[in-house]
């Protein structure tokens, strides 16, 4: 399995020996191929329930919200994502549960087949007074308190024949599909001692309902909240994983406008912002100026694959710069220095 650190290390080595633009293009190809191979292995292990679980306490609604933000740019263009997320906590493997959310949202998007429609995602809690069964699983889950994740699409629905096979490994109705996405969902939920249920009828859409054993809310313990903004999905994913593993809470946005909205909603919680330099309508420089109009001392870090770009404007802002590609340790060190500088100035 290729880790983010090693994969980005390959990118860094390539860049030293090739012209920058060619290096970035080649490195992206390597990264995509590695990600696909790793994804295939993860999903096969997930279905067999043999993947290693790293259990931690988490807010399921937070995981869903973060993945929904990450996936907005790749869902069907006619799809509208509607979130109804009530706080609910579980003890589980956050990487595996992100995979579950990603697979369900992707499946819902595919069900729309490019047509306009809705993907509704809900989290909540449910207390079972009696065992609950599902046609998808051999054993019922016992009574108790459960966290609920529900994903509904307004697509064409499924026939009984298709519904009976959707969790079979390598079964797919999609051109070019691998048939492992829903199989992995079943395996992961099974490994978490949960339940999967599906309701679907031709012409009426589909609803996937997941129940996972709930956990009591734990006190928030974090090194700080970082707002990461980048229009590249791969960069957002890597930054999210690296910073969460380092103990930070991470909010992610795919462009400057979305980052401004998140800052309006969570501004008091955000301890620093890490933004790509070039992002369409609102780039990193404009974004930092915007948020610093509200919080002039907010620490900020700019990233870019082109180190000489807009150097005058970056210098005028007085923010540090992290060149792409970067390793996990480089990103963690840059954020640590960013927060350390603010702590030092506050103490002074």
TrEMBL record:
PROSITE patterns with a match to the protein in the record? HIS_KIN, RESPONSE_REGULATORY
Q: Where is the signal peptide?
A: none
| Record domain Response regulatory: where | 225-339
UniProtKB keywords:
Kinase, Phosphoprotein, Transferase
User: What does the record give as EC number?
Assistant: 2.7.13.3
Which reaction is catalysed here? Answer: ATP + protein L-histidine = ADP + protein N-phospho-L-histidine
Residue positions, PTM 4-aspartylphosphate: 276
Q: Give the record's GO CC terms.
A: plasma membrane
Judged by the first EC level, this protein's enzyme class is transferase
Q: Which GO terms describe its molecular function?
A: histidine phosphotransfer kinase activity; phosphorelay sensor kinase activity
Which InterPro entries does this chain map to? CheY-like_superfamily (IPR011006), HATPase_C_sf (IPR036890), HATPase_dom (IPR003594), His_kinase_dom (IPR005467), Sig_transdc_His_kin-like_C (IPR004358), Sig_transdc_resp-reg_receiver (IPR001789)
The answer to whether keyword tRNA processing applies is no
The protein, known as: histidine kinase
Organism, scientific name: Polyangium spumosum
- What taxonomic lineage is listed for the species of origin? Bacteria, Pseudomonadati, Myxococcota, Polyangia, Polyangiales
């Amino acid at each position: 399995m290729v880790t983010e650190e090693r994969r980005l290390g390959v990118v860094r080595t390539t860049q030293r020996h090739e012209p920058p633009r060619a290096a970035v293009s080649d490195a992206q190809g390597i990264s995509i191929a590695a990600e696909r191979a790793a994804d295939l292995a993860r999903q096969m292990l997930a279905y067999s329930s043999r993947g290693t679980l790293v259990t931690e306490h988490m807010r399921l609604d937070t995981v869903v919200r973060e993945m929904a933000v990450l996936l907005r740019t790749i869902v069907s263009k006619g799809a509208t994502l509607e979130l109804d997320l009530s706080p609910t906590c579980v003890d589980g493997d956050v990487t595996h549960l992100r995979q579950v959310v990603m697979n369900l949202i992707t499946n819902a998007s595919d069900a729309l087949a490019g047509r306009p429609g809705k993907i509704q995602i809900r989290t909540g809690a449910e207390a079972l007074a009696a065992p609950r069964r599902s046609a998808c699983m051999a054993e019922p889950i016992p009574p108790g308190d459960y966290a609920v994740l529900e994903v509904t699409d307004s697509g064409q629905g499924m026939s009984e024949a298709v519904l009976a096979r959707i969790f079979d490994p390598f079964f797919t109705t999609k051109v070019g599909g691998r048939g492992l996405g829903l199989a992995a969902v079943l395996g992961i939920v099974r490994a978490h001692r949960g339940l999967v249920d599906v309701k679907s009828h031709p012409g009426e859409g589909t609803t996937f309902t997941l129940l996972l054993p709930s956990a009591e809310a734990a006190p928030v313990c974090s090194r700080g909240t970082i707002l990461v903004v980048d229009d590249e999905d791969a960069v957002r994913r890597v930054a999210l994983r690296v910073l969460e593993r380092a103990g930070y809470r991470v909010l992610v946005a795919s462009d400057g406008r979305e980052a401004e909205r998140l800052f309006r909603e969570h501004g008091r919680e955000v301890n620093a912002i890490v933004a790509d330099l070039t992002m369409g309508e609102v780039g990193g420089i404009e974004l930092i100026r915007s948020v610093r109009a509200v919080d002039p001392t907010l620490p900020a870090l700019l990233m870019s694959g082109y180190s000489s770009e807009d150097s005058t404007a970056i210098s005028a802002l007085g923010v540090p710069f992290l060149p792409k590609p970067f390793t996990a340790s480089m990103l963690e060190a840059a954020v640590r220095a960013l927060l350390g500088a603010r702590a030092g100035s506050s103490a002074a």
